[in-house]
Amino acid sequence: MNNVDLAMAATDAGGDPDGEVTLDPKVQESIGRSLRAHYDDIVNSPVPDKFLVLLAQLEATEHRAAGASNDERN
Amino acid sequence: MSATDFKDGLIKEIPNLRAFAASLSGSMQLADDLVQDTLLKAWGNSEKFEPGTSLRAWLFTILRNTYYSLYRKRGREVQDSEGTYAERMATHGNQESHLDLADFRKALAKLPEEQREVLIMVGATGLSYEETAEICGVAIGTIKSRVNRARTKLAELLSIGSLDDLGPDRHSAAAIQKVASEVAGT
Fold first, then answer.
1. Domain range spanning residue A23?
2. Which of A17, B6, B52, B55 could serve as a FRET partner for B181 with CA atoms 20 to 30 Å apart?
3. What was the ipTM of the complex prediction?
4. Full-prediction pTM beyond 0.90?
């Protein structure tokens, strides 16, 4: 059981304030695993180049702006 | 924090931003538009980020606000016309979970947004309950309650397939038991 599962289990052990159903720990674990499988599948997929290009452009623009203001001061 | 450090921080968070955005919008294409908007806003407001605090939590707040103000409606339209990403996205990697990933994504997409987002944040992103509460602007108790409801509803959806199939007793012990026995049988 990892930390996330423990955190979720601890939440349930704390009672359910709204009188909701408390799920079987095995069901909770299964949902937790699937949740991370879903999320990690996307996290581990390749990042489109356009994001890196965008950030490089933003950084270059900022450098140019900084250079321009330095020129003005000098 | 230098512009380069900030940029490197953003680059590291892109995979998490995409996964959260896809979970919210139900579409990988919308997710990438949403991530792009988020990166632009983050860059333009970089002076508001406090070094030493969680960049992920800060970026998730921007992404979430952007989604609710601009993308929510588009997300619904895409889901209506093209089906959700859950049904269309190719999955890769090994699937150790006994639940089929595609089935799980369909069920996840059926959760109310307010439940889905907290379940993802608490259950998959590594954000704490406290951070999640701050991002959503609600109390921690509300987050815990939403997580509980989300998991209960997922268990129902995964065991029966459709809410429409459920009788008036939504919290039927039999439905829960079915999932439990499937888990035990794996």
1. 1-43
2. A17
3. 0.77
4. no
